[in-house]
Amino acid sequence: MIKKKNTKKIYGLPEKVIFCKKCTISNQRPRIGFDEEGVCSACRFNEFKRHGINWEKRKKELEDLCNLHRSKDGSYDVVVPCSGGKDGSYVAHQLKYKYGMTPLCVTWSPLRCTEIGRRNLQNFIDSGFSHILGTPNPEVSQRLTKFCLEEMGDPFQPFIYGQYNFPLKIALQNNIKLVMYGENGEVEYGGDMKNAYRPTRDLKDVDKHYFSGFPPDFWYDKNFTKSDIFPYLAPSFRDLKESGIEVHFWSYYKFWDPQENFYYCVENTGFSPAEERSVGTYSRYASLDDELDGFHYYLMLAKFGIGRTTSDTAHEIRDSKINRDEGITLVKKYDNEFPEKYIKAMLNYCEISFEYLIEIVDSWRSDHIWGKDKNGEYFLKHPIWEED
Predict the structure, then answer these.
(1) Does domain 53-253 match CATH 3.40.30?
(2) Mean local confidence (pLDDT), 190-213
(3) How many whole angstroms separate alpha carbon 118 and alpha carbon 110?
C-alpha cells in the first residue's frame, strides 16, 4: 500500500485555489507568484517582455557575448543542449548561421525514444551540427525511473537530471566556457523570479528549480551505487567556478515564442510535427521525443491540478495565439486525459502493474485540489471552467 503524500506541504501549495485573471495557470504551480490584481508572475513578465525590454540593446549584448566566446581556431565555442526539438534546434541554428558560432550540441537520451523524436534529431544533425548523445546504463535508468515515480511522483526525473547536468560535463571536458539554454522556464512559465532580469542563473538554483530538492546524489542510499548515479551528476560547483563556465538563456536576448520556434525549425532544421496531437493537450509540435513524457504531465496534474493543456494554453494566451476563453475550453477538453497510448511501454519500463501505477498517481492527489464522487472517481474541486 502506497502511503499518501502530503503534496501541499512538500511543495508549499496555498490552500485556496485561484486562477490567473489573464491566463489559465493557477497558484498551485510551485514558486509562482500572484499580485494583488490576481495576475500571475509569468503574465506580468510577459508584459515586461513586450513593453519593458529594449530588444535592440539585448541583441547587442548577445553579439558582444558571442564575440567574447567565439573561437579563432574553429574549435567548439558554445554547448547547446538540444534534443532535436523546436527550441534547442532553433537556438543552435541561430548561433551557428546568424552569429558565426561553432556549437557542440548535446542530447541526453530519452527514456524511451519515439520514432518521430529520432527522426527530428537526425534531421537536425544533418542540417549541419556536431552532436554528442549521452546514454546512461539502461538498467540503472529503469530502476531510477521507478524510484523517482514512487518517491517524487515524476518518472521523468532521471531525464531531467541528465538534461541539465550532462551539458555542463561536456562543456567542462571540452573547455567550452559558454552553455546556451533556450528559455528560462522559471520566469517564462511562472516560478522564482530572482533571475528574471539577468541572462544567467546561479548554478546552485538547479536543485530547487528543477530537481524538487532531490539532487541525484539523494539516491545513494536507495540501492544505487556512486557509479550508478555518476552519469546524472553535475560537475562540482568548485570545478565549474574555476573553469569559468557560464550558463546563459537565449530567452534573455531574444523574445521567446515556442510556436515561432516551431515554424523556424520546420523551415531550417527538418523538424516535423507529430501526425496527431500529443496526449493531454492539443498541440503536435512539443515534447515529442519520449514515449513516457505523458506520464510526467499526468503526475503533474495529480499533484497540482495543472496538466499539460493548462501549461500550453497559459503560454499561448501570453503569446496572443489564443484567448483565455479558448484556453479554458481546451483545458476542460484535454487536461485530464490519461496517457493511454504508451501505457504498456510505461508499465514494462518500470516493471509495475497498472493498479500499482494508479495507486502511486492517487497518492499524490491533495485533498484541497481533488474530491471523490460516489463512484470513487476523482474530480477537481475547483476547475477553471467553474471559477468564481
Answers:
(1) no
(2) 70
(3) 10
The band of 295, judged by pLDDT with boundaries at 50, 70 and 90, is very high
Q: Report the distance separating Cα 142 and Cα 164, nearest Å.
A: 19
CB distance 140 to 350 below 8 Å: no
Residue type for 57, please?
K
Torsion on CA atoms 254, 259, 265, 271, rounded to nearest 10: 150
Handedness of CA 164, 166, 167, 168 (dihedral sign): positive
Shortest CA distance to 369 belongs to which of 21, 15, 34, 5? 15
Question: How many other CB atoms are there within 10 angstroms of residue 353's CB atom?
Answer: 10
Dihedral of CA atoms 141, 147, 148, 153 in degrees, nearest 10, equals 140
How many whole angstroms separate alpha carbon 352 and alpha carbon 232?
Answer: 24
**Residues 258, 260: Cα–Cα separation, whole Å:** 5
Instruction: Give the domain ranges of the chain.
Output: 7-50+273-386, 53-253
pLDDT attached to residue 329: 98
| Burial zone of 162 (CB within 10 Å; 0-12 exposed, 13-18 middle, 19+ buried) | buried
**What's 167-214 look like in SS3?**
HHHHHHHCCCCEEEECCCHHHHHCCCCCCCCCCECCHHHHHHHHCCCC
